[in-house]
Amino acid sequence: MDDIVRQSLAKWPNVPSCTGWLMLDRRGNWRMRDEAAQASGAPGTAIRHDALLGFINRNYEVDERGQWFFQNGPQRVYVELGYTPWVVRLSVDAGGALALHDQGGGRFEPAAVFVDEDGAILFADHTQPARIAVLHDHDLELFADHATLADDGSMSGELHWNAQAPLPLQSIRHDEVAARFGFIASPAAAAAAVHTPT
């Protein structure tokens, strides 16, 4: 977290949080969601300003409930997730070594690889608790180039990750990912549910 953010939190500790205004989409784009986008369920406008993107990425954290947020000075801005809290890109260097980088440019070292019922590829890393990231769909062909997949269409197989033992491709259902990896995909929906009378 940036020092200026820590200082603003100390100066104004009780600024109310907000939900619904910021989204991390399925391709790792940060998006601003005005009231019209929120009302229609649209993803919003992609943020393109490099300094702002850097600020968001440096101040992106998770709370005790598994809700990811951007600490914007003294205000906590909860993030709507297009799928997972992290989106990774797969690349291969001139020597043939594979690498994953998250939406902020940080390295992501895979410990496990999953495939959901729609064919999306997800990686869990070595941290505790494990971070979960969906692979950008533009990198599926590169992934397939380094995987051995079953011929029966079951999406079973393994990923050949550099010099280490192959990572088995495990199946997971899209609707199980958030609970298994301890995050809330829509803090706005969670907040609405808390405030809806029963």
Automatic annotation (TrEMBL):
Entry superkingdom: Bacteria
One Pfam family matching this protein: DUF2944
Name of this protein: DUF2946 family protein
Protein species of origin: Paraburkholderia sejongensis
Lineage: Bacteria, Pseudomonadati, Pseudomonadota, Betaproteobacteria, Burkholderiales
